[in-house]
Amino acid sequence: MALTIHSFVLGPLGNNTYLVVDDATQKAAVVDPASYCDELLVEIRRRNLQLDYIWLTHAHFDHIAGVHEVVQASEPAPQIALHPGDLELYHSGGGASLFGFSVQPGQPPDIHFEDEQTLLLGQSKLRVLFTPGHSLGHVTIYSEDAGTAFCGDLIFRGSIGRTDLPGGDYNQLMESIRQKILALPPETRLLSGHGPATTLAVELVSNPYLRNLQQHE
Ligand SMILES: [Zn+2]
Ligand SMILES: [Zn+2]
């Protein structure tokens, strides 16, 4: 079953927000809705998509700031999914105050992600990979059929997520990458929460953090 993925760069921090569409049913999910998401909402309406889910890789404010707006604009309301490890962060506004921002609190999550959970979007199946280290409840959402992983702030082109925020843990983040990301096929497209898309194959040869990981094996 084929998925179509649309990318948007939104909000004051230039977050990547992804719109994932199951081609067969035109059912859709939004990954990490950032603030000022008009462009995203217009696209959902223009394509007449049924927005079933908001999937959150983690609950930092820049990744959840658009939840309220997307829910308000959707009828029926999409279900919100988050790993319970980030629930407290979610309800506290995602740490926005640390950065001088304020975030309209999102509706409470309907679905609690767990490791290796299967997600159904129309006729497509995706898989949740628990990848803590950047935050306590960070997940990666992987579509084998689309050969794509939504990595949030776990890994970026040439870099990795910061681990100096509350709940961050460098060793845990590296372990998440080693166990969950390095286990994916090298051609897997990595779509991160910030910055350009990449592939695991490219990162294996050019990302200094991954090179260190491989040397230590
Ligand atoms: Zn983050
Ligand atoms: Zn982020």
Structure description:
It is a single chain. With 217 residues, this protein is an alpha/beta fold. Helices cover 24% and strands 29% of the residues. The protein contains seven helices and 14 strands. It has helices at 38-46, 61-64, 67-73, 87-91, 170-181, 200-206, 208-215, and strands at residues 3-10, 15-22, 27-31, 50-55, 79-82, 111-112, 118-121, 124-130, 139-143, 148-152, 155-156, 159-160, 189-192, 198-199. A six-stranded mixed β-sheet has the order 1-2-3-4-5-6, covered by helices on one side. A six-stranded mixed β-sheet has the order 7-8-9-10-13-14. Strands 11-12 form a two-stranded antiparallel ribbon. A hairpin with a 2-residue loop joins strand 11 (155-156) and strand 12 (159-160). Helix 6 (200-206) crosses helix 7. It is globular and about 45 Å long. It starts with a strand and ends with a helix. The model has no long low-confidence stretch (mean pLDDT 95). It binds zinc ion (ZN) (2 copies). One zinc ion (ZN) binds next to helix 2.
Mean pLDDT: 95
How far apart the termini lie comes to 36 Å
Q: Percent range for helical residues?
A: 10-25%
What amount of the residues lies in strands? 25-35%
Give the SSE order as H and E letters: EEEHEHHEHEEEEEEEHEEHH
The total count of helices amounts to 7
**Spatial shape:** globular
Radius of gyration equals 16 Å
Ligands in the model, by name, code or SMILES, are:
zinc ion
What is the structural class? Answer: alpha/beta
User: Low-confidence stretches at least 5 residues in length (pLDDT < 50)?
Assistant: none
Number of strands: 14
Most strands sheet? 6 strands, mixed
Strand ordering within the main sheet: 1-2-3-4-5-6
